[in-house]
Amino acid sequence: MDIMEQVTAGEVKRKGKAAKAASLKMVNLSTAEKNKGLELIAEQLLAQQALILTENAKDLQLGKENGLSDAVLDRIMLNEKRINDMAHAVRLLTELQDPIGETLETIQKDNGLSIQKKRVPIGVIGMVYEARPNVTIDAATLSLKTGNAVILRGSSSAKYSNMALVKIIHQALDKSSIPADGVQLIEDMSRETARELFRLNEYLDVLIPRGGKNLIETVIRESTVPVIETGAGNCHIYIDEHADKTMAEKIVLNAKLQRPSVCNAAESILIHEHWLRQNGKGILEKLAEQQVEIYGDEQVCSSFPSAKRATEEDWAAEYLGLQVSVKTVQSVDEAIAHINTYGTKHSEAIVTSNEANAEKFLSSVDASAVYHNASTRFTDGFEFGYGAEIGISTQKLHARGPMGLKALTSSKFYVYGDGQIRE
Amino acid sequence: MDIMEQVTAGEVKRKGKAAKAASLKMVNLSTAEKNKGLELIAEQLLAQQALILTENAKDLQLGKENGLSDAVLDRIMLNEKRINDMAHAVRLLTELQDPIGETLETIQKDNGLSIQKKRVPIGVIGMVYEARPNVTIDAATLSLKTGNAVILRGSSSAKYSNMALVKIIHQALDKSSIPADGVQLIEDMSRETARELFRLNEYLDVLIPRGGKNLIETVIRESTVPVIETGAGNCHIYIDEHADKTMAEKIVLNAKLQRPSVCNAAESILIHEHWLRQNGKGILEKLAEQQVEIYGDEQVCSSFPSAKRATEEDWAAEYLGLQVSVKTVQSVDEAIAHINTYGTKHSEAIVTSNEANAEKFLSSVDASAVYHNASTRFTDGFEFGYGAEIGISTQKLHARGPMGLKALTSSKFYVYGDGQIRE
């Protein structure tokens, strides 16, 4: 290990240890104490706009020098409105119910033992994320609301913004009962600190990556700390033989076009061959009118000649833009099999008036959210009424689908006796 | 990759793919269909005792030739009673409530969308375990009861027994509606197959290791598949200043001695210095009378000279035998800090009549189960009334503490609309 690596090792371990120590105190914070800390953070964000904008300008300047695209620069960019939005989101969090302390199960044993399973904080949460500096505030305040300490590792392209935001959080927490050590930012952006964070099992209870496919795959591949996989959405709309034409078109256009860059947007349309023959042209024309490039199978291309032929890659693609793959199927079973082969277990919809086909689709498609006659765009913590969202889990363990505050909690058995021993 | 490795690679991928395909069918099995399959397994276990005993004898013979200890040979050994017990456990499973299909949450949106969060199988579960062949039956039947496919990788020392048991399971399932492919056994016991299983993210949803510390650490270090950590228990009993003498002795002796080889047995006793001065000698003598070796700090050793001095390793040790570490503390806070430093987050107890100290201990100690005035030996799926146990989770995600059937489930959002789109 050379000297630079030793310095590096120092930061992650030191901050991990401090976060762990803070988390052990944070389990006993009251809801009022946590909300007070959040309110102070919101106030400081508004009071220190000038500092935030100055530091953000440094990131933007460096980003331009490094040739970042306008889209990425826009994600990094903060302005008065965006800072106000961040502060507003923090204040909304104070109004949400505190999940900590909830009794999840009560077991009364014949021997007099009383067992209560209660909701508790997870401990220390690691967040690894890309460009947007507002994730720094989001992740920190959602963690604090649920009594968790957090270690943040943002993008190097938002380094100055993130440092300013965490400085503001620390100043706010210093006036509260929440230990400021409960929020840690990794400032050394080398690969070594990332690798160390991925293997910080001694102090970290979970890692949540938020960002593109590469980031998420790297975290899954390299982590020994448990990971909650968030993410990729190759979402399908299956238009059944028994689908209403108007409803199918409305749902497909919404799922594809309302916000094409997000994970719950549709990337692939499956159409029953009968429906395609009768109604297919209309929907394909409407997509094309909106500048959507269509990648179709043979039948689609022959009924709509301006479509290009889809390759194997298209069936698996998460375009996140104005492209869509379109495939003909002969039955709901073929649609289910296709989705279970190419889908990413995010959000999948069927449009049909046939209840049996709907039921089969919903129970057989393996995804975090399955829809009957509605757009996949609703898979979202706010739309589901959770009032917050730390990400959308596409894995099966711990949390699946939109993750609200409860996804940042664990449980603990409290056992009360008066001298019971096991016979 | 040489030819043997290619064959090896073939087995894990092929069985993983088959298990995944089976799991997609298994989500639609009814409770009656699953119970019928379990009943057939129980019947076949009893009907084919001769086969099981013949194959088990091969493992025992090889084990003797390989110089396995009597303790390990006893774990591998099956006899008529043990086979009857396995069949009985499978029949008990049929009586347990099926958790699949339970509605966990209902959300009614103003736009008419109806969202139901329902309990579903996880998908494909990987079990990696040591010696005991009964885990083969346990893991397979708990997985089937919850609609999951399972890939089993037992110990090479029980290879013939495991192959016989899985053959019997397959014969039983062939007469049921459960696809026999839902239970897969890895037969090639090389390191390569283990490594492949740890990275089988394409087909595996979770890995559960059951066994010693080395096995669990290897699985955590090498897996990219999500792992549920089970296991190690360095459990403490803290005897507070305000502890009843008789109760403290009864609990300590039970937690240490009722079954010293298991994870919820006590390994370390923390004693408040006032209590030690007044009552300590009695308890230390009683432990010594039962052949327990005592590793104490300076105060303990001076009040009980036959104790040996504890080292740093003793505070962290999971002895699983007739040894105990004993430390003097000056306060409940010191006890909490010691446990949060050396504990394994399994089961921790306080003996006291002081409610404030009890409350502080229970809320501040970071463990899956915390006890007030009771033995740690109760941390167990059967004792908690779950009727089954796949292991005891010592991590914070997904499941914590004894894992019953519900720990083998995930959830899925069913969203019902009539054409809703996002505005």
Automatic annotation (TrEMBL), chains A, B:
Residues 6-291 form the Aldehyde dehydrogenase domain. It comes from the Bacteria. Pathway: Amino-acid biosynthesis; L-proline biosynthesis; L-glutamate 5-semialdehyde from L-glutamate: step 2/2. Its EC number is 1.2.1.41. InterPro entries: Ald_DH/histidinol_DH, Ald_DH_C, Ald_DH_N, Aldehyde_DH_dom, G-glutamylP_reductase_CS, Glu-5-SA_DH, GPR_dom. One of its GO terms (molecular function) is glutamate-5-semialdehyde dehydrogenase activity. Catalyzes the NADPH-dependent reduction of L-glutamate 5-phosphate into L-glutamate 5-semialdehyde and phosphate. The product spontaneously undergoes cyclization to form 1-pyrroline-5-carboxylate. Keywords: Amino-acid biosynthesis, Cytoplasm, NADP, Oxidoreductase, Proline biosynthesis. PANTHER family: DELTA-1-PYRROLINE-5-CARBOXYLATE SYNTHASE, GLUTAMATE SEMIALDEHYDE DEHYDROGENASE. It holds the Pfam family Aldedh. This is Gamma-glutamyl phosphate reductase. It comes from Siminovitchia thermophila. It is found in: Cytoplasm. CDD domains: ALDH_F18-19_ProA-GPR. Belongs to the gamma-glutamyl phosphate reductase family. It catalyses: L-glutamate 5-semialdehyde + phosphate + NADP(+) = L-glutamyl 5-phosphate + NADPH + H(+). The lineage of its organism: Bacteria, Bacillati, Bacillota, Bacilli, Bacillales.
